[in-house]
Every structure is written in C-alpha cells, then in structure tokens.
Design brief:
mainly alpha
Length: about 100
C-alpha cells in the first residue's frame, strides 16, 4: 500500500488512478441514465448523462494518446535518441545544475 501511495505522488503517478476514475464516471453515467428512465428531472439527467458519456470518451482518448507517447519515448530511447529526448538524462541534467 505504501508503494502505491508513493507512486501516486511521483510525477505522472496519477495515471494509476485512471481505472478508478473510469469506474466512478461509469457509475455516474449508470445512475443518471437510471434516473432519466425513471422520470426524475429528465432534462437534467439527460444532460448529465451526455456529459458523463463525453467524459468517458475523453478519458479513453487520453489513455490511448498517453500510451502512444510512452511507446514513442521508449522506442526512441532504445534506438539511441539524442540525450535531450531521453527523459532519464534530462532529469539528471536538471539535477546537476548549480
């Protein structure tokens, strides 16, 4: 548990929460659709359902783009990319500045 919490506080660690966020948004969508079908504040539930559906789609798009960028970075570092594009060398170079 400690390593998961430590991973969340590292730069880019919030990506580990994406499955949980998608689950919560899915529950929101299901609740809004159920309320819409039941007839409770129909226009409001329709709009909230539409917005939560759009949020799920945008999260899916973000995850695809994030994986594409990570794959491009890993392939460029394996092919001997210039040090300016390698994230591990930029961290060490930034840490060495006086």
């Amino acid at each position: 548990m400690t390593s998961f919490v430590a991973q969340l506080f590292e730069p880019g660690g919030g990506v580990a929460l994406i499955p949980f966020i998608r689950f919560v948004i899915g529950c929101l969508l299901l609740t809004c659709l159920t309320a819409f079908i039941a007839g409770v504040a129909r226009i409001h539930m329709f709009i909230l359902s539409f917005l939560s559906c759009g949020l799920l789609v945008s999260m899916h798009f973000f995850q695809i783009e994030f994986e594409r960028v990570n794959n491009a970075r890993s392939s460029s570092s394996q092919q001997g990319a210039p040090p300016s594009l390698n994230p591990s060398t930029t961290k060490s170079a930034a840490a060495k500045t006086d």
